[in-house]
Amino acid sequence: MVFIKSYCEANSSISHTWLDEGISPCFFFTLVPTTLLTIAFFLGTIHRIFYQKYGTTMEPKFIPRSRLYGFQQALSILLLLQFFGGMVWKAATAKELPGYEVLYGCFSLLGWVWAMATLRVERRRVLIMDRTRGHSAVLLLFWAVAFSAENLAFISWYSPHWWWGFENNEQQVQFALWLMRYICTGLLFFIGLKAPGLPRRPYMLLINEDERDVENSGQSLLGRTEENESTWKDFWKKVRLLVPYMWPRGNIFLQLLVIFCLGMLGVERVINVFVPIYYKNIVNELTDGSSWPTLATTVCIYVLLKFMQGGGAGASGFVSNMRSFLWIRVQQYTNRVVQVRLFAHLHSLSLRWHLGRKTGDVLRSIDRGTTSINSLLSYIVFSIFPTIADIVISIIYFITYFNAWFGLIVFVCMALYLTLTIIITEWRTKYRRDMNLQDNAAKSKAVDSLLNFETVKYYNAENYEVSRFEDAILKYQASEWKTQASLAFLNQTQNLIIGLGLLAGSLLCAYFVTEGKFQVGDFVLFGTYIIQLYTPLNWFGTYYRMIQNSFIDMESMFKLFEEEEEVKDEVNAGNLLYKLGKVEFENVYFSYTNGKEILNDVSFTVLPGQTVALVGPSGSGKSTIIRLLFRFYNVQGGCIRIDGQDISKVKQTSLRAHIGVVPQDTVLFNDTIRDNIRYGRISASDQEVEEAALAADIHDKIMAFPEGYDTQVGERGLKLSGGEKQRVAIARTILKAPQIILLDEATSALDTQTERNIQASLAKVCANRTTVVVAHRLSTIIGADQILVISEGRIAERGRHEELLLKGGMYAEMWMNQQQAQDSDSSSETESKDRKSEKLQPPSTSTGHHGH
Fold it and tell me: What are the C-alpha distances in Å from 794 to residues 171, 624, 790?
């Protein structure tokens, strides 16, 4: 018959916390279940009351189906069975059962049942005001304490009262039960950080969105982001993206530099151990009355180590400074590679993406993203890993050379510190992300307003723009306040944990000194080492936040990298073999958006050396034909050929090398006129640039400027008139000397006289070259070999000027309307000139004539 004779075992008391080189089983198995039950019952009850009072039941369709959630429940049930089975096994095998084992089994069962109930409540109900994602702090704290408690068993490795000896069947069974608890609690904690059974987005957003919107909620850059998604999602994917930027491939010197810097990192860890040891030796030698040579040697070694280490934790020591100096080259390599690759990627994206981008957001994302990569590499390699290494080394050192209590203090503080840091930092992530969004919005408004400076002036909207910008700044500052306030709360929590740990360790060490078990130098060693340890530990929260912030800052940049190229070269694409310049459109279909066709079954041929003009109302698809031929977009049906070669099968660079374009809306670089013209062929000489300007009828105008060809054109060429910009664009195309020329209303911004001069120049340039012209003024394309009238995405009429006039169709009507408008303008000009001449004439002498 089993009975309970006493609460603790013989020769033991609950007040004896340390027994035979280990934690007293009576103390341990009383403290752990009591703590867990307190967390589960009291905090869990408060938590459930809040959910019942202020929460609502989630609709089943928003509750994610997750195997990991089922695994969570299975682990919790397995732990319950373990506790129950352990009690049954004890009762069946032991003749005398200590009271603490009964308490341990009963309290553990109650605690884990309550935790399972809390888990089910969180899955089925949600707090409406709660915008965070993931489990509550109560559950995470419960799992963290349970897992930490199982780790404390390692401290009692040498104690005969625990199960590490495997001396009998009872110890083997106890070890098996502990191993099951260790694995289950560890898995529950780490799976709990992911929260697989809970929605990944705030419930208030989910109930207002369509299910398809929820599935496709991750949008491209500058669209909506999953604002409460953990920044650690796809962590290894992000790390794989980072590694190529850290490891300089193909540069042996930089690779050796990386290895050497990592070696210096290991040297710093060794120095950090020996600095407090030699400080202790100095104090002991001073109190013991050691000889001067011995003491001087110890002091010199200590000072040398301190010089190598620097202030406190290697923050400014010789080794650290040397490593930082050598790392500059690696950091520059990373910066260069990231920016160049991203810049090249942006230029590879389609015209569709560039037309929809927000320039301010893109620039901010690139700026923050490249900075964050350097921050990540620096914090992970030179801060996080060394800090973890220092903590592990310190725990081993204190357990080995002091006793297990000091290792326990460091371990408990570290576990609490890291757990609360992760929980609070994850909670405040949404504030940081919202602050970034508001920052982007403010900068975008500023950029848009400055780019449209003239429009603002036209409508006297300066006060409106300033007000909009101020509103954006106020929204940003509101998010910034939340970010800073939550940061202050986190810092205070961290300081409280560190202070309590330092107090407990210092009191214990001072007690052992007074008992004669430690020397004074040991107290100095503990104080020095613990402060040296807590300095990086205190920064650990900052490192974690900075890494998380860097991940947030990198999200937009990663999304830029993930943007797919709409127009890609095929794998085995070859160069365009230009022969004569025959262009063919065969049954071409195209639309910018689904459901609205721009081109519908368009077919035509431009023979070598011919000029084909495209005319028609606005929005009919004329400019789209030019863009498709230049391959800004891929056709969705049909085929475009040059000299019999499908342009989708050749490399884009070789295709565009043979085509010159003069667009309708010319945008120039903020550079000199000379360099803007030279952009047509970068290798051109100054003489060739001036010859191209002569051909475009702009040379004389340029020479009239005070600085001539060195005149700055301003941002987007705003310092030049529309006609001047157009002629610079024509000169640029003339300099390129392409075999195929595309003119998209190239003379639309010119006056009549200049237009005639340009037409003559273009006629010389386009001679013997295949030319496609988009024209609004029909008078400019009278001599075209073929005119295509585009209407609603189809070719309504085709033929030469005279043929189309005889048909009496759309073209003839457009010609009549333009002629009437021109006649009206001419008569208005004549009348205006007559009025002016009348005013300028001297008084009439006809009166005198009549008098004679």
Answer: 88, 12, 6
In one letter, which amino acid is 469?
F
pTM exceeds cut of 0.70:
no
> What pLDDT does residue 149 have?
87
Beta strand pairing status for 611-615 and 770-774? parallel
Tell me what the mean pLDDT of segment 548-568 comes to.
72
Element counts in the chain: helices (H) and strands (E): 29, 12
| Cβ-contact 581, 750 below 8 angstroms | no
Domains in the chain, CATH or no CATH each: 25-205 (no CATH), 231-562 (1.20.1560.10), 583-826 (3.40.50.300)
| Unique residue bearing structure tokens 């565009």 | 656
Rg (CA), the chain: 40
Confidence bin at 313 (pLDDT 50/70/90):
very low
The pLDDT of 427-434, averaged and rounded, is: 79
> Is the Cβ–Cβ distance between 632 and 351 less than 8 Å?
yes
Contact yes or no for 750/669 (Cβ under 8 A): no
DSSP single-letter state for residue 43? I
Q: With beta carbons less than 8 A apart as the criterion, state whether 688 and 735 touch.
A: yes
Q: Is 293 or 216 the better-scoring residue by pLDDT? A: 293
For the chain, the helix, strand and coil percentages under 3-state DSSP, each to the nearest 5: 65, 10, 25
CA 262 to chain centre: 27
Q: Which two tokens stand for residue 662?
A: 């003069």
Q: Are 137 and 423 in contact (CB under 8 A)?
A: yes
Task: Report yes or no: 125 and 57 within 8 Å, Cβ to Cβ.
Answer: yes
Round to whole Å and give the CA distance between 501 and 491: 16
Start-to-end Cα distance in the chain: 160
Max distance between CA atoms of the chain, in angstroms, equals: 160
Q: Is 735 exposed, middle or buried (0-12, 13-18, 19+ CB in 10 A)?
A: buried
**Residue ranges in 196-251 assigned as alpha helix (H):** 203-206, 211-215, 235-246
Higher pLDDT, 270 or 843: 270
- What confidence score (pLDDT) does residue 300 get? 93
